[in-house]
């Protein structure tokens, strides 16, 4: 269910606010009994609900939260979260930057477009809760080898999330990893996390370790569309979600989504969605 009637101004949360400069992550145990307004963040956010019920509204789409809900948000997402009356939520919240993800895991998780949100059964709930508790304990105690144990628990949580998500989806979303080389995977992952920035074909080709012209040919062969069209599709999808979930001025959405001019943004948006950004928001 998409909620388009309540408009918000998202707040930007920075790494400096939530992650210690000497670390690549921070774990919190949160008690949520109020509405946390629409926001985005520079870091990744891995959350697990231990008890209570509520809602998580990500990129304009509502998701029910309950005991056993596990979800991952990226720097490209914006969301708001709240608990139901008399059902406050307690949850683990692990925030981290890209340094905590090695290249193989990054490609594994993000070489495709996916909204990682699942509800675990009782058995899996206990397993994942114990992994978060292990991370929390090791952070506090800092015994010899704590970094190794933390990394292992973190990766097991992500892999459990990945497997559960794909086992339960009736129709998989756009797949871009299975028949493609690891070099193209690296470029796609980079695009999915940097599409709002000034991103050139040369930048993506560098991630793949290929010459730009050759990369362009390989990219089109593997995805069926050009680099520029793929990049523009990512930007338009983000702009569409932001139009639905916030009242940010259209000009600001244009630039926040990675477009350089309002004219280009409006023309591209109308071509893809059949109406101007302003009309789309009004309707």
Outline the structure in words.
The strands form two sheets. Strands 1-3-8-5-6 form a five-stranded mixed beta sheet. With 283 residues, the chain is of the alpha+beta class. It contains eleven helices and ten strands. Mean pLDDT is 86; it is low at 1-7 and 171-180. Helices cover 47% and strands 20% of the residues. The chain starts with 10 loop residues before the first strand and ends with a helix.
Overall pLDDT confidence: 86
Rg on CA atoms, Å: 20 Å
The number of helical segments is: 11
The helix-and-strand class reads alpha+beta
**What share of the residues does DSSP label as strand, in percent?**
15-25%
- Major sheet description: 5 strands, mixed
Poorly predicted sequence stretches spanning 5 or more consecutive residues: 1-7, 171-180
Extended strand count:
10
Taken in chain order, the helices and strands follow as: EHEEEEEEEEHEHHHHHHHHH
3D shape: globular
InterPro entries: AraC-bd, Homeodomain-like_sf, HTH-like, HTH_AraC, HTH_AraC-typ_CS, RmlC-like_jellyroll, Tscrpt_reg_AraC-type_HTH
Domain HTH araC/xylS-type: 185-283
Keywords: DNA-binding, Transcription, Transcription regulation
Protein name: Helix-turn-helix domain-containing protein
């Amino acid at each position: 269910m998409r909620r388009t009637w309540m408009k918000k101004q998202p707040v930007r949360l920075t790494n400096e606010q939530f992650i210690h400069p000497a670390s690549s992550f921070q774990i919190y145990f949160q008690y949520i009994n109020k509405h946390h307004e629409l926001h985005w963040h520079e870091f990744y956010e891995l959350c697990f609900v231990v008890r209570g019920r509520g809602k998580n509204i990500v990129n304009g789409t509502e998701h029910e939260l309950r005991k056993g809900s596990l979800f991952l948000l990226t720097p490209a997402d914006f969301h708001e979260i709240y608990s139901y009356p008399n059902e406050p939520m307690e949850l683990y919240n692990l925030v981290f930057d890209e340094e905590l993800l090695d290249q193989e895991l990054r490609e594994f998780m993000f070489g495709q477009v996916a909204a990682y949100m699942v509800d675990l059964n009782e058995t899996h709930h206990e397993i994942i809760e114990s992994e978060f508790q292990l991370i929390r304990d090791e952070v506090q105690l800092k015994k010899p080898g704590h970094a190794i144990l933390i990394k292992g628990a973190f990766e097991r949580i992500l892999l459990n999330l990945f497997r559960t998500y794909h086992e339960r989806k009736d129709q998989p979303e756009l797949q871009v990893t299975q028949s493609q080389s690891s070099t193209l995977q690296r470029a796609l992952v980079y695009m999915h996390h940097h599409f709002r920035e000034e991103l050139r074909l040369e930048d993506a080709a560098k991630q793949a370790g290929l010459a730009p012209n050759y990369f362009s040919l390989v990219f089109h062969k593997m995805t069926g569309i050009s680099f520029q069209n793929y990049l523009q599709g990512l930007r338009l999808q983000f702009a569409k979600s932001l139009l639905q979930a916030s009242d940010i001025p259209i000009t600001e959405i244009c630039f926040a989504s990675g477009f350089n001019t309002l004219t280009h943004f409006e023309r591209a948006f109308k071509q893809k969605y059949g109406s101007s950004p302003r009309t789309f928001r009004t309707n």
